[in-house]
Structures are given as C-alpha cells and as structure tokens.
UniProtKB/TrEMBL annotation:
Pfam families: Peptidase_M23
The protein, known as: M23ase beta-sheet core domain-containing protein
InterPro entries reported for this sequence: Cell_wall_metabolism_enzyme (IPR050570), Dup_hybrid_motif (IPR011055), M23ase_b-sheet_dom (IPR016047)
Keywords: Signal
Upper taxonomic lineage: Bacteria, Bacillati, Actinomycetota, Actinomycetes, Micrococcales
Organism: Agromyces humatus
Signal in keyword set: yes
Amino acid sequence: MSFAALLAVATSVPSLSLLTPADVQAMALEQATMHSEDGQRVVISGGVLATQTVQSEGYESQTVQEYAEAAGIRADSDFINNPAGTIQWPFAVGVHVGDQFGYRDCAGCSSDHGGQDFNPGLGAEIQAIADGTVVDSTDGGGSLGVVVMIDHVIDGELITSVYAHMEYGSRRFEVGDTVEVADVLGTTGSTGMSTGPHLHFEIRIGGVDGTKVDPLVWLYANTN
C-alpha cells in the first residue's frame, strides 16, 4: 500500500513540487559558488542537490539547478522559495535582492522607490506569487514598461502584486485571466524607466490604487 501511495504521488505531482526549501537553498549556494560575480562570493562545503529519479506522465525529474537554468534564472542565496507554498517569491529559486523600498539616491532612477528590485538576469522567468486574477497587463505601462498586475485575496484582504520592466513579447496573461501560484507571467527585462535588466515588484494593499508597502517585508512575512 505504501508503494501504491508513492506511485500515485509520482504520477500526479511535478517533480519541482517535491523539493524542499533545503534543496533550493543548497542549489542556490552551489550556483553562486560556481558562477560568482565581482563583489559576490559564497563559500560552502557539503552542499547537496536534489536527486529525484521519478519520471512519469510527462514530468521529468530534474534538480533545482537544472530547473533554474531552464528558466534562465541566475540563482543566489538572498532568500529561499518553497515551490510547494501557496504564497511564493516571484522567482522559483533564490535570486539577488536589489534596490529596496523607499528613498534611494541613484542617477537615472526614482528617488521614492515604490517597490523591491530583484536581479535574476535578463530573460529569467517571473512567477505569480499567489493565485489571483489579472487586473492589468500591458506593454505600455509608462515608467513600469511591460507590466502585469494581479489581484489576490489573502487572509480576507485584497492585495495587488505588480511585476514591471518585463521583456517585450513575454507577457503570458491578459486582463481577466485567472492565474495560479508559480504560473510564469513573463520574463525579466529592462523596459520603461529602467537602468538595467531587473524585476520591479510591488505589493499594494487594497487593490491597484491601494497603499504601497515594503514588498520585501511583506514577502518574508507571508511566503510559506
């Protein structure tokens, strides 16, 4: 009976959903070690990657590193994403956290930064943080460039998540579409008011015209 239960899981669940946060962290550290950039260096020992061997019904086993590479993501260990969570980070694995919410002093960018920047590399796949409904999706979002906005009801509260500066031609959903957590919305670009490829991510409490809050604080408090 135990074998039958395991077989049922193997034939109905994508391999990524079986990975633990520890698997993701190990991959992120391993990736950062093998592909470090100037100013970024992570030293680890004994890192272990996921090694699933199940293959059935179109789902092929892969390590988190292979998944990230396929999604064009340059992994980092700034956070851990749980691929089984009902509320997740906007990337399937940890990536570098860039400019944060609030005041900043930089040439060519807004001083009152209303979101959180993530730097996963050009073309990296961006995912929905939770189930919801698309309320804005356009290539002409002004300073936000190519942008998708999604309404979610989380703990009885209306939350809008914003994904900006995506690549032209990468949007996969239109207004009115229903999305599920971890659905790929588009890819990381540099459209609109942007000084380089990154995701500008916002959390607005109360809807599109609601109050912007610190997305990093909100994600740490709500991802599961």
